[in-house]
């Protein structure tokens, strides 16, 4: 072990496996395993050694440099798995013992968001499908207080362990739901997933429910919801039973009713969850007189709900980790291990969101040469002008530049971009590349200094985690990124944070009148976002994309 450096390794196992490295108080790398193995969500009980080794290589480290290790999982109980994974880890690397701790699921979420926020004091609200097991139940929602670098859990709600998987019909179709199941407690995020399954979507497709919700109206009135903290009850049958009762009154059979009311059902659960998390947030903000709020866990990838929290709660600052799902767990595990080993003396440094891998010109050229594709290389200034011209011409441009973003949202380093002023661009992208449902919106990326001009934001939206109204005078002009409810999920980019993309947006403004681009993830349906130059070229060759930019190389298809 190298005793001259303070280096923590964070690992997450389960779904969205991930790895993080902290060196001397700075997060120097974090990457999700799905970007490496090309398996979406990369669900496994195996340690992601491949990603660990990639980050070691990228950061010029090896196992002997590591001072301590933190590991998180989901749906486990206590330290029962610790010895299993310690043995596996040390057998794999055949190295001397390194301090190795297990971090509970919600603790990992809480550490990840608080220590990344830069807040001295904050309420920390964690909400996800489910965390670890406690006394025969499972974590549902947790509230922590972070103060002066120390985190304390002040409230925790537990749910019953599901009977089989929530996607099974007995858990979301009321006539098939046994009486025992109906009265089990369920987390807010699992309630959202439960309705997602009822609507015919699959695991990990809650974003489709969110997109569909904007086309409907709630079937139920939740305006009187008021939760005094986490002491509330939410059972499997709630909302599901009311939908069943409305179907009985409709004269339609069950499947017909669900199909005809899909958008309204989606809006019903969206409205319920919004009201619930706003009510809970207000309660703890008032109880602890704290004006900063940190949010993490998969539920807080819901950008419609996030913006309403920001608007309706009496707070000065809000921070949501870009990797709020389990791909951010490794960051929390690394923080935990670092503090456990070295204590806490000053705020951690983290350069969000670009924490993954990048590739040299030589590495990029080797792949281009291997694939035998024509290319041209440009300077940054030339490239900015060229891409802007392609956007003006309504071409579809794929970007692969710099370090990978952490989290599920493409933030212009692994993105497909297009003209936001072309009213047909949404359909063009769907028909040619993305093949997504018509009700799912595409997002805008805008320069930070003009985000408030075009969008009704209360605070800067840096990571595409807030959906807010497009200002009325721009909705028709920016129709490709304006959703049916007149909202858009905004990413704002500053010159300091990303100078190349910022200068590109300035050039795009000269070409189309707006410093805005339509931005969607660089992948096709069912695949993770591209990671390597080879991933980018393979996707480019199989999808109907006009131009691929990798670093400063521009690739076009032969006519």
Concise summary:
With 559 residues, the chain is α/β, with parallel strands linked by helices.
Descriptive overview:
This protein is an alpha/beta fold and 559 residues long. The protein folds into three domains: 7-107 and 327-350, ATPase, nucleotide binding domain (Nucleotidyltransferase, domain 5, 2-Layer Sandwich), CATH 3.30.420; 117-323, Nucleotidyltransferase, domain 5; 361-556, DHBP synthase (Alpha-Beta Complex), CATH 3.90.870. Helices cover 35% and strands 20% of the residues. It is built from 18 helices and 21 strands. It has helices at 34-37, 49-58, 82-93, 105-117, 179-182, 188-198, 206-213, 240-250, 254-260, 262-288, 303-312, 329-342, 361-371, 380-392, 425-434, 451-454, 499-512, 533-542, and strands at 7-12, 18-23, 26-32, 68-72, 100-103, 121-127, 133-134, 137-147, 150-160, 292-296, 317-320, 349-350, 375-377, 397-400, 414-418, 443-447, 466-469, 487-493, 516-521, 547-550, 553-556. The strands form three sheets. Strands 13-21-20-14-15-19-16-18-17 form a nine-stranded mixed beta sheet, sandwiched between helices. β10 (292-296), α11 and β11 form a beta-alpha-beta unit. The model has no long low-confidence stretch (mean pLDDT 95).
Q: What is the CATH topology descriptor of the largest domain? A: Nucleotidyltransferase, domain 5
Structural class: alpha/beta
Radius of gyration: 23 Å
Strand content: 15-25%
| CATH top level class name of the largest domain | Alpha Beta
Uncertain stretches of 5 or more adjacent residues: none
């Amino acid at each position: 072990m190298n005793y001259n450096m303070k280096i923590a390794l964070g690992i997450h196992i389960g779904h969205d496996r991930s790895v993080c490295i902290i060196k001397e108080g700075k997060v120097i790398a974090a990457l999700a395993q799905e970007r490496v193995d090309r398996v979406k969500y990369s669900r496994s009980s195996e340690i992601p050694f491949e990603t660990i080794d990639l980050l070691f290589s990228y950061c010029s480290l090896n196992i002997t440099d590591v001072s301590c290790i933190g590991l998180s999982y989901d749906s486990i109980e206590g330290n029962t798995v610790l010895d299993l994974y310690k043995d596996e880890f040390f057998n794999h690397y055949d190295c001397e013992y390194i301090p190795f701790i297990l971090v509970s699921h919600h603790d990992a979420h809480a550490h990840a968001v608080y220590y990344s926020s830069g807040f001295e004091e904050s309420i920390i609200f964690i909400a996800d499908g489910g965390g670890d097991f406690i006394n025969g139940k499972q974590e549902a929602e947790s509230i922590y207080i972070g103060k002066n670098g120390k985190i304390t859990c002040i409230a925790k709600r537990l749910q019953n362990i599901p009977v089989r998987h929530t996607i099974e019909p007995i858990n979301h179709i009321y006539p098939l739901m046994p009486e025992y199941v109906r009265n089990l407690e369920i987390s807010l995020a699992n309630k959202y997933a439960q309705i997602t399954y009822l609507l015919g979507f699959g695991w990990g497709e809650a974003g489709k429910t969110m997109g569909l919700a904007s086309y409907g109206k709630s079937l139920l009135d939740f305006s009187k919801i008021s939760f005094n903290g986490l002491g509330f009850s939410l059972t499997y049958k709630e909302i599901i039973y009311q939908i069943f009762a409305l179907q009985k009154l409709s004269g339609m059979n069950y499947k017909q009713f669900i199909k005809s009311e899909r958008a309204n059902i989606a809006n019903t659960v969206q409205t319920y969850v919004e009201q619930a998390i706003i009510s809970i947030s207000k309660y703890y903000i008032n109880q602890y007189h704290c004006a900063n709020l940190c949010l993490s866990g998969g539920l807080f990838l819901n950008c419609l709900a996030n913006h309403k929290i920001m608007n309706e709660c009496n707070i000065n600052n809000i921070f949501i980790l870009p990797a709020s799902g389990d791909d951010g767990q490794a960051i929390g595990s690394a923080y935990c291990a670092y503090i456990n080993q070295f204590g806490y003396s000053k705020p951690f440094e983290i350069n969000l969101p670009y924490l993954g891998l990048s590739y040299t010109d030589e590495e990029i050229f080797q792949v281009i040469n291997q694939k035998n594709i024509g290319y041209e290389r440009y300077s940054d200034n030339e490239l900015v002008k060229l891409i802007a011209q392609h956007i003006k011409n309504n071409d579809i441009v794929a970007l692969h530049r710099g370090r990978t973003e952490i989290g599920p949202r493409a933030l212009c380093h692994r993105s497909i971009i297009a003209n936001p002023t072309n009213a047909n661009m949404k359909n063009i992208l769907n028909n040619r590349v993305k093949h997504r449902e018509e009700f799912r919106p595409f997002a805008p990326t805008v320069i930070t200094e003009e985000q408030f001009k075009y969008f009704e934001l209360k605070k800067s939206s840096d990571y595409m985690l807030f959906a807010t109204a497009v200002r009325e005078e721009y909705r028709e002009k920016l129709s490709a990124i304006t959703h049916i409810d007149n909202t858009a999920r905004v990413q704002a980019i500053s010159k300091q944070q990303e100078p190349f993309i910022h200068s590109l947006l300035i050039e795009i403004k000269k070409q189309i009148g707006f410093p805005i681009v339509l931005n969607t993830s660089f992948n096709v349906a069912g695949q993770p976002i591209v990671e390597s130059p080879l991933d980018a070229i393979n996707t480019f060759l199989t999808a109907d994309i006009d131009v691929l930019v990798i670093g400063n190389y521009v690739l076009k298809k032969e006519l």
